[in-house]
Amino acid sequence: MAINWFKYSAPTTFYGLAGKMIPWFAFSAAILFVIGLYIGFVVAPVDAQQGEFYRIIFIHVPSSILSMFLYLVMAGYAALGLIFNTRLSAMMASAIAPTGALFAFISLWTGALWGKPMWGAWWVWDARLTSELILLFLYLGFIALHASIDDPRRADRAAALLALVGSVNVPIIYFSVKWWNTLHQGSTIKFTGTSMHVAMQQAMFTVLVACWLYAIAVVLARVRSIILERERNTTWIGELPEVKQ
Amino acid sequence: MNGLDLWMRENPLTYVWLGSYAVALLIFMIEIAMVIHKRKITLQQVRLMREAQDEAGDDN
Q1: In chain A, what residues touch B16 (CB-CB under 8 Å)?
Q2: Is residue B20 within 8 angstroms of chain A, CB to CB?
Q3: Beta-bridge mates of residue A190
Q4: Could you read off the pLDDT of B26-50 as tens digits, one per residue?
Q5: Residue A116 to residue B8, Cβ atoms within 8 A
Q6: Which of B16, B38, B47 is the closest to A52 by Cβ?
């Protein structure tokens, strides 16, 4: 049976679908967080060089990956909105931005906490750290620009341009440890393999999936509010049971 | 070495937990609370607007 994906690109159908999906993503995220933290703090062994401090990796790496990936997804939706003028794409981009900014902040915060015992400094103007800070500013710029324009469609277009221009920063963050001499270590997990202990890998991937599911749940919940706000004058919003009560 | 440096080296797990995981979980909680609050406020606004429109329609 062929699925008509275009059907779900309309706010009318997506609103209901998102409402049904949120509890599943949220519940799975909570379970995986607990499992990931259990493996990370109970099963995974102590690191020979960094001792217990390395355990920050289980939140630092997933939040860094999410901050970059969410930016690309946001820029992708922004591009779709700009090219095809689809309402839902722009709404999705607006809904992703706050969550992406929070992940970028968590990445910088946990990185500072890891840096202090390992490097002796909370912050250094290293290429990786600086480009991640620029990513946080890009998210904040997107949110501020969108909020500063009253007409939502004009705000969508202006913010989409910023998102697209800013997406050049994501490969810079990723390759910064290769392109420049940085204090920040290179990738621990590569396509060619890893030297990490199995339990450490399991903890990191479990928390990564949990963060993904959490981000999806929160973004879907936020986009439902945006849809309600923007489509408030339409007939279908008036017929929703939560609006009628 | 100052007091914080000494404390973090003596209590690394507490430092990791409180500094990164507790902060991250707090941020997630705040975000969830904000999303729920936004939903409530938006629904309230939409209902009020609809009621006002209905009343205006009845008056006409």
Answers
A1: 52-53, 55-56, 113
A2: yes
A3: A193
A4: 999 999 999 999 999 999 999 998 8
A5: yes
A6: B16
pTM: 0.93
Q: Does B48 touch chain A (CB under 8 A)?
A: no
Domains in chain B: boundaries: 25-60
Rounded Cα–Cα distance for residues A19 and A242 (Å) = 12
CATH number of the domain at A28-244, out of 2.60.120, 1.20.120, 3.40.50, 1.10.10? 1.20.120
ipTM of the complex: 0.90
Distance (Å) of CA B42 to CA A166, B11, B37, B38, B46: 30, 45, 9, 6, 6
What are A54-94's pLDDT values in tens digits?
999 999 999 999 999 999 999 999 999 999 888 899 999 99
Task: List, for residues A6-15, the tens digit of each pLDDT value.
Answer: 777 788 889 9
Chain A and chain B share a number of CB contacts under 8 A equal to 78
**Class of residue B59 by CB neighbours under 10 A (exposed 0-12, middle 13-18, buried 19+):** exposed
